[in-house]
Amino acid sequence: MDTPRWLDEREDRAWRGYRRMRRLLDLELARELMQDAGLSEPDYDVLTDLSETPDQRVRLSELADRMLWSRSRLSHHISRMQQRGLVTREECATDGRGSVVALTPAGRQAVESAAAGHVAAVRRHLIDLLTAEEIAALGALTHRVVDHLAGRPTPEA
């Protein structure tokens, strides 16, 4: 067995700081989104995803892949959102086994009402705390890690 490459003090500080920041930021953004708009983060993710598609509908399986959720978990969440009138579920015209999730007018209104407050919270708790150079660095490093985890080649630094 290979000897682990332990994190040095600087790496450990960065790693622990990132984990703590991520937890606190996610918690605060979720709290404000629920308080201000009555939406959970998964609600908001589904609604924004649907609102950004040309016909405001997407296959359940594709949405599950985008959200990194199992189809079963997303299906249960969609059922709860349906009960609140935010989305509908339709049979897929090209595949009788699949289903399509569509944004309702109430869902569109909910995401439009939530968006400005959510963006303001993202600015207040992250973006406005950073310099232009730090924002560029954050963008570069997040895309590099995402590309790595998605199995896409990354350009050499």
Automatic annotation (TrEMBL):
Signal peptide: none annotated. It holds the Pfam family MarR_2. It comes from the Bacteria. SUPFAM superfamilies: Winged helix' DNA-binding domain. Residues 11-147 form the HTH marR-type domain. InterPro entries: HTH_MarR-typ, MarR/SlyA-like, WH-like_DNA-bd_sf, WH_DNA-bd_sf. PROSITE patterns: HTH_MARR_2. This is MarR family transcriptional regulator. It comes from Micromonospora fulviviridis. The lineage of its organism: Bacteria, Bacillati, Actinomycetota, Actinomycetes, Micromonosporales.
